[in-house]
Amino acid sequence: MKVTIKSWTGVATWRWIANDENCGICRMSFESTCPECALPGDDCPLVWGVCSHCFHMHCIVKWLNLQPLNKQCPMCRQSWKFNIH
Amino acid sequence: MLRAIGKKDRDIFDEVWPDKRKIVLKLLRQDTVSQREWQDLFFGVHFVCLWDEKGAAKIYDCLQQDIVEFIVHAQSQVQAQRGEQALLATYIVEWRKFFTQSNYLPLPFRQLEQSPQVKPASSSSASGASTSASTSNAASCSNQAATRSSSVNPAASSSAASPSGASTSAASATASTSATASTSAAAAAAASNTASSSSKKNPTEDSPVRKLMLDSWNKHIFHDIKHRLQDSAMKIVHAERNGDAYDAQLVVGVRESYVNLSSNAEDKLEIYRENFEMAYLKATAEFYRLKSTEQQQQNGVLAYMKYADAKLREEEVRAKRYLEPSSFSILTYTLVKVLIVDHLNSIIAECPALIRDYETERLNLMFRLMDRVLHGVGVEAMMGDLQRHIMSAGLADMLSASDIITQDSEKYVERLLELFNKFSDLVRNAFNDDPRFLTARDIAFKTVVNDTSVFKMELPTSIANRGVKFTAPESKCPELLANYCDMLLRRTPLSKRLTSEQIDARLRDVLLVLKYVNNKDVFMRYHKVHLTRRLILGTSADSEKEEDIVEWLREVGMPADYVNRLARMFQDIKVSEDLNTQFRTSISRHDAINIKILNAGAWARCSERVSVSLPIELEDYIPDVEEFYKKKHSGRKLQWYHHMSNGTITFVNNFGRYDLDVTTFQMAVLFAWNQRQHDKISYENLRLATELPDPELRRTLWSLVAFPKIKKQILLMEPSAIGSPKDFTENTLFYINQEFAIVKNGKSQRRGKLNLIGRLQLSTERSQQEDNQSIVQLRILRTQEAIIKIMKVRKRMNNAALQGELIDILKNMFLPSKKMIKEQLEWLIEHKYMRRDDDDINMFIYVA
């Protein structure tokens, strides 16, 4: 008797790897969405700054648009730059 | 008739008129009048009016006298007739003659309208006519004199003329005098405007002379013999109704005289309506009052309906001959009253039996009759009967077949649809798909679908931590519908048997039934679970259809966020397919590996993860996949859901080589024997080897030792007499069945494929009760959410209105019970989301 694997379908979900539980702007969990969205996941992504702080993309974009001059990270006040991996 | 008149005036009038009067008389008698005489008359009238100050009035008075005399003569002619028909015939002849003259005679006297004295003359004619109560000429003259002496204007004439019927003469006399006193110049102008506009057709129509002629006829002849006339006409109609010979022209003639007799420009049909129409209606009602009772007693109610229907039509045709169009509706009303409303109860009493026997033709007849009844009393009664019948027949049908349909969702749905189609046909054929009956049908269907007497699922009404739990039974219908849907969409014997069109039609049918289901959330839940299985296992029969039905669900009003989640699931599967292709090209040896990366929010909630020690081959792949995914999507990490993952293994023994579809758990268990094929392994050792939690291991082992419907199981156990997975002990031994083979038609096959997955487990061990509890939990949250949503907008709202809106919002998901609403309101008040008004306990106020 011998058993071998012919094919296999693995099922997984994905989570964000964030250094915090909640978004510093909207205080909602990263696992859920920003207040504007209904469905968590691809539709309401997270973004990271070079300062390593992480927010819902919708939240930080809204925040940056409200800053007239210096675009700063709302957590550490360093000037905000998107961290593109 | 003579009055004090100035001598000079008298001369001119007396000189000229006697000659002209002869011509007038000739005209009245319809004797031949030469062209010269005709012209002389014009000249005479003109001459008198020009030279005699009161000439117009004098001519008018004289003319009146002549007309009256002529009429009295005609009257004696008519009344001399004894027979009904002869009377009518004579009357009609006389009337036609007179009426023709009424179009010509006024022509020469147009001067009367134009001279300064015309207006008084015209008005006096009106008041004279209206005071028909005064029969003597003297009285009428004094009245004219009185009217003329005060300055009268056309408004007075029009207001006085309107109620010219004999019975209202007294009232009109007072009206004329009061109007005379009070009319303003503006009103006079307005009245003359309307008079001129209405007289466009025929120049003589509003001439005072014509009016005089008609009014006099009305007063002197018509008033006296109208009852005889009407009676005679009605006798003819009666004879016609009884099928005897008749002369319809006589009736038509009488009616025409009534219509033309009216001198009232604003309501030409007045005399007709008050006399002829009324008599006709009365005669009709009397005739059918007798006939209908007779018919019903002789031939029974069913035959009577036919009779009533036929007579209604017949009378409509007759009315077109004998009546003015304005009378049709009131005639129909009268007929309906006598023929239907008076027999309503006995007709309606037949309805339940007709529905029971599917007598569509008779029902249709009854419906047409009832539909004529005002306020829909009859129709409502029929609707009630229909609704009761569908409910009782539907439930009886379901109960009689309860043995089969509670087990078999296909049979259930098909039975239900058969029932629906039967009743829909009934509504279409018998009631022409009338919206009122469709509503009654829908209400009844709802009751049948949501009935809990055949089968039910128990839902806890309160959350567990609230102490005692009560259960509210609900129909299992939505669950069965979802199961049926799954059978159609999955690759099953059923879906293979049907063509694409047939499947579409059946899916539509499911949605039709779903429309009547109160608790759609249960359907959604089960549908999603089934869809998840189909997508994970790749067992959809047709992926296009899968997406179609999602759109259909959206069309029938399923909540948008639910539908969006379903759409999202398809998206995930597509994204995963792309990922797989990329993954395979990146590392060539991973052909056998498929990954499905799901969006946690969109798929069924499965919070718990089950640990399992994977076969070594798989264990190696996992880091590769994770690494690959990390490169694709930074900031994300994978969480494996091994209870959903699955695969195909090749099982080789001395008999043959078999491909087995298995879950990953089954795989892990079977791989325990790979190094020691002939060993018997204890439950405890298997647990150590696979690292599966106890309930999962028990279930997995059970699926391998006792998979339903196969002859030879892949695993055997010791002791072999174990009845359920709960009875496994630590020492129960398991070993590979060396004789395992796939058996088909009693023969062992050397090769083959077998699916051991069965129903893919989507969540970890969880009882049905807990599952139901989560439905209730979700309902509670939805209710709270909806209440807050409403209150946020309304700020203040009373209980009844709030419940109404709440049900409106939630009806596409479930029907919230009164109890649940109340509990949630209390909860929200307790937690200071809202409060009750201090003065009104039923008024809620939103607290921000």
TrEMBL record, chain A:
Subcellular location: Nucleus
Domain annotation RING-type: ranges: 34-77
Assigned GO CC terms: anaphase-promoting complex
CDD domains: RING-H2_APC11
Entry superkingdom: Eukaryota
Record carries keyword Nucleus: yes
Gene3D superfamilies reported for this sequence: Zinc/RING finger domain, C3HC4 (zinc finger)
Predominant cellular place of this UniProt entry's protein: nucleus
Pathway connected to this protein: Protein modification; protein ubiquitination
Any one GO molecular function term: cullin family protein binding
One GO-annotated biological process of the protein: anaphase-promoting complex-dependent catabolic process
A Pfam match: zf-ANAPC11
InterPro entries documented for this protein: RING-box_E3_Ubiquitin_Ligase (IPR051031), RING-H2_APC11 (IPR024991), Znf_RING (IPR001841), Znf_RING/FYVE/PHD (IPR013083)
Key words of the record: Cell cycle, Cell division, Metal-binding, Mitosis, Nucleus, Ubl conjugation pathway, Zinc, Zinc-finger
SUPFAM superfamilies, per the entry: RING/U-box
Keyword Transcription regulation assigned: no
Subunit structure: The mammalian APC/C is composed at least of 14 distinct subunits ANAPC1, ANAPC2, CDC27/APC3, ANAPC4, ANAPC5, CDC16/APC6, ANAPC7, CDC23/APC8, ANAPC10, ANAPC11, CDC26/APC12, ANAPC13, ANAPC15 and ANAPC16 that assemble into a complex of at least 19 chains with a combined molecular mass of around 1.2 MDa; APC/C interacts with FZR1 and FBXO5. Interacts with the cullin domain of ANAPC2. Interacts with UBE2D2.
PANTHER family on file: RING BOX
Protein's job: Together with the cullin protein ANAPC2, constitutes the catalytic component of the anaphase promoting complex/cyclosome (APC/C), a cell cycle-regulated E3 ubiquitin ligase that controls progression through mitosis and the G1 phase of the cell cycle. The APC/C complex acts by mediating ubiquitination and subsequent degradation of target proteins: it mainly mediates the formation of 'Lys-11'-linked polyubiquitin chains and, to a lower extent, the formation of 'Lys-48'- and 'Lys-63'-linked polyubiquitin chains.
Family to which this protein belongs: Belongs to the RING-box family.
Name used for this protein in its record: Anaphase-promoting complex subunit 11
Native source organism of the sequence: Drosophila ananassae (Fruit fly)
Record gene name: Dana\GF14365
From TrEMBL, chain B:
GO biological process: protein ubiquitination; signal transduction; ubiquitin-dependent protein catabolic process
UniProt-listed Pfam families: Cullin, Cullin_AB, Cullin_Nedd8
Residue ranges, annotated region (Disordered): 116-137
Molecular function per GO: ubiquitin protein ligase binding
PANTHER family named in the record: CULLIN
Family that this chain belongs to: Belongs to the cullin family.
Protein name: Cullin-5
